[in-house]
């Protein structure tokens, strides 16, 4: 029983990493109708910007103020992400707006490749340590179940982000505008919505959200240009299972994927084990898509002619 | 005149769609645009709302020269265009569709009152208020589209074939509702319609387009008495 609960807790921690990126994907999809494969790459770039700021400030501030340096670095990185995300929309994605959606999605893969390459050239492909406010290994135990402080932070952060996103989309005027533009930009313009500006804001917000994920994850995984590539695969699976338009669905799916992955590795060691556990969520993905193509929490897109 | 088009020409790439279109809509009036498929009716409306580029001619609205302005700028001046195919925001609820129409307005209380007014006018929409736009029937979507346009408090409502794809009885209902909206709000209207009988149920006058030219215009009574019009558009 103790092992079971420990596996669930670990699964929630790991799932929160997937969820952070999954939420950014949901945000771009809600705001533009696209899936952005560059989401992970953009988040990694922001994490590197943060690291550069820490490296610049920490020596000047001295050891007592490292935490302050990290705070400033996070603020700078998030501001950078917003501007960068908006710039990607304006300079790259805008050209694909009126065309085929599949073409636009392929363009995001191009952006991913470009960013990963540039980051590699500037910062190298070596692992870099991203400093954090407390030691990552720090943990406490409740009734014999070990809980990492960092995992708990990430878990809570994901829940807060999810709630904020849901409120942004469903309760604010900006959210209404973002959804309208994603749904049908030409029609939204006829109601006087500034489509270009809303798309830029949507991309900027999603990039910022992705950067939050990247910065939460970087201290744990160590920073490399490809840090989020594997996470992106899980995040995409979570988004597809949970429904592209549901922040809550994406988060629950992300947790579910990680828990199932851990449980099957532990309890089916001969069939699944550590080597095959990555395949488990995708087996689930296929099964769910057969029976509910819109995802578990997604709304079915009904089109009448 | 609230809206005045003079000698408009427009093309999609090399294909000339509008050769010479002139028409005008008086403040509070309702004007129809009649014509066969491909005559340029939809393109004329698109030229007004800025979704198609106009090569030559002038478009004046309420004293402003609006040719060349972007769709959101034209909308901001008070022209609400309900496009062909209704422009339904399928993933948004009926309420959200209406609120998108009111996106530029700041008077939140009045917005809620206007929604109430619309729901009284279109009882079907009240029943489907929380449903997604894509789940509505064609007639309901058309009423929602007209309602959404009304929510922007326009000076001029531009309707592109509200009867398109609807069963005859549904089309009649939609037109009855639009007529009611006109009576109660006094908003000027420019209506494209293939079915002249439907158009004549709300407009005071109409313009006939043929291969991109405005060839004839007159009051509803004059056009109804015109033999060619009767043969071509009224089916008598």
What does this structure look like?
The complex is a heterodimer of chains A (305) and B (236). With 305 residues, chain A is mainly alpha-helical. Chain A has a two-stranded antiparallel ribbon with strand order 1-2. Chain A is globular, with a radius of gyration of 20 Å. Chain A contains 12 helices and 2 strands; from the N terminus they run ααααββαααααααα. Chain A has a domain at 24-228. In chain A, strand 1 and strand 2 form a beta hairpin. Chain B is an alpha/beta fold and 236 residues long. Chain B is built from 10 helices and 10 strands. Chain B has helices spanning 41-49, 71-77, 94-101, 108-121, 123-127, 138-150, 168-185, 196-200, 220-224, 227-234, and strands at 3-12, 15-25, 30-35, 54-61, 64-65, 79-82, 156-160, 188-192, 205-210, 213-219. In chain B, the strands form 2 sheets. In chain B, strands 6-7-8-3-9-10 form a 6-stranded mixed sheet, with helices on both faces. In chain B, strands 2-1-4-5 form a 4-stranded antiparallel sheet. The model of chain B has no long low-confidence stretch (mean pLDDT 94). The interface between A and B is medium-sized, with 25 and 34 residues.
Helix segment count of chain A?
12
N-end to C-end Cα span of chain B: 33 Å
Q: Report the helical percentage of chain B.
A: 25-40%
SSE order of chain B, one letter for each helix or strand: EEEHEEHEHHHHEHEHEEHH
List the helices and strands and how they pair.
The complex is a heterodimer of chains A (305) and B (236).
Chain A: H1 2-32, H2 39-61, H3 66-91, H4 101-123, E1 139-142, E2 145-148, H5 149-171, H6 173-183, H7 185-190, H8 195-221, H9 229-242, H10 247-267, H11 273-276, H12 279-291
Antiparallel strand pairs in A: 1-2
Helix pairs in contact in A: 1-5, 1-6, 1-8, 1-9, 1-10, 2-3, 2-4, 2-8, 3-8, 5-6, 5-8, 6-8, 9-10, 9-12, 10-12
Chain B: E1 3-12, E2 15-25, E3 30-35, H1 41-49, E4 54-61, E5 64-65, H2 71-77, E6 79-82, H3 94-101, H4 108-121, H5 123-127, H6 138-150, E7 156-160, H7 168-185, E8 188-192, H8 196-200, E9 205-210, E10 213-219, H9 220-224, H10 227-234
Parallel strand pairs in B: 3-8, 3-9, 6-7, 7-8
Antiparallel strand pairs in B: 1-2, 1-4, 4-5, 9-10
